[in-house]
Amino acid sequence: MTGSAGPGKLTDPVDASDRTLVAADGTRLAYRLRRTGAPRRTLLLLHGLASNHTRWSEFTATTRLAAGWDILCPDLRGHGGSLFRGRIDMKTWCDDLEELLAAEHVTQTVVIGHCLGANLALWFAQQAPRRVSGLVLIEPMFRAAFTGNRARLAALRPLFAALAPPLRLLAALGLHRHSLETLDLAALDRGARMTMAASGRFPEARYNSVREDLRSLPTSVYLQGLLAVTGPLPALASIAAPTLSLLSAGGTYSDPDITARLLAALPQGRILRIPALHWIPTEQPQLMREAIEAWCDELGTRSGT
Fold first, then answer.
1. Which helix (H) or strand (E) holds 288?
2. What are phi and psi of 230, to 5 degrees?
3. Would you place residue 13 in the very low, low, confident or very high pLDDT band (cuts 50, 70, 90)?
4. Residues 29, 20: contact at Cβ < 8 Å?
5. Quick check: 264 and 293 in contact, CB under 8 A?
6. Residue 222: partners with Cβ closer than 8 Å, 6 or more residues away
7. Cys-Cys with 277: which of 194, 223, 250, 302 at CB 3.0–4.6 Å?
8. Given this model, what pLDDT does residue 14 score?
């Protein structure tokens, strides 16, 4: 990425699909925009914890929605190209999204989020309801529904809250890892499907590993992400946007029945269950894509666009 920009202004990149926004506090936020010609309706795709915008590379490359929608894929602050080691929470990420949409002159968007990104989508819909015309929640995480490893991590939430501030201080003093691996989720997913085809089993150990997650993410960011994903969610009854929730049939991280009962509070909610352990974009990319496309088609018909 090249070019320079002041706060709230865009760079002028060589590759028009890769952009950088300098946020109001000076943090450089990386994102990818797929747009042909003048701005159109926009999909805002939010990745999960220890992920980045490449979570959506396969979706953006294959979806027929690209013919009529702009697709905006940010690296959330602290992740991927948006390197940051300071304080982060849901409000920080929501503020970043508002800055990004304003910079790209997007007045309304359908927000699609996976895991942490799904929770963030709900918070963003509460903070900026006029900007959100619809939501797609892929494996939203409710603490009351946590199972297995996620339930154990949630029990350690007070410890994470205590460790995050000193880690941020050490990072501010320059005491942190100076080299992080680059994570390509599209390549990782291809490898996972090869393993599934050969063995019939999903390589869960690679996707459910703190050690692997920390290879590409600052430790302080990881802890703050855990705090965010194990924290409260806004009152769902206050979310007016039409919502499609995609839940896996498995219970690797959360109980789908409990999650479905909690999602019933959404005034305009719909739930679709997909056969997967948890990683729907990896395990069932075609079913996920087709469900999102059909729902966006219906949303457009209802809105007259």
1. helix 285-303
2. -100, 5
3. very low
4. yes
5. no
6. 49, 50, 210, 213, 214
7. 250
8. 36
Q: In what order do the strands lie in the sheet with 28-34?
A: 18-22, 28-34, 69-74, 41-46, 109-114, 132-138, 243-248, 269-274
User: d(Cα 280, Cα 294) in Å, to the nearest integer?
Assistant: 17
| Euclidean distance between CA atoms 87 and 227, whole angstroms | 12
Which residue type does 210 have? Answer: V
Tell me the β-bridge partners of 254: 146
CA distance 255 to 261: 10
Distances in whole angstroms, Cα of residue 258 to Cα of each of 106, 147, 235, 247, 253: 35, 11, 16, 11, 12
Contact 113, 120 (CB under 8 A): yes
Contacts of 193 by beta carbon, 8 Å cutoff, 6+ apart:
282
Query: Looking at 9-131, which runs of residues are DSSP E strands?
Result: 18-22, 28-34, 41-46, 69-74, 109-114
Q: What gap in Å lies between CA 257 and CA 275, rounded to an integer?
A: 14
Q: Which two tokens stand for residue 92?
A: 């920080």
Per DSSP bridges, beta strands 41-46 and 28-34 are: unpaired
Average pLDDT over residues 180-192: 96
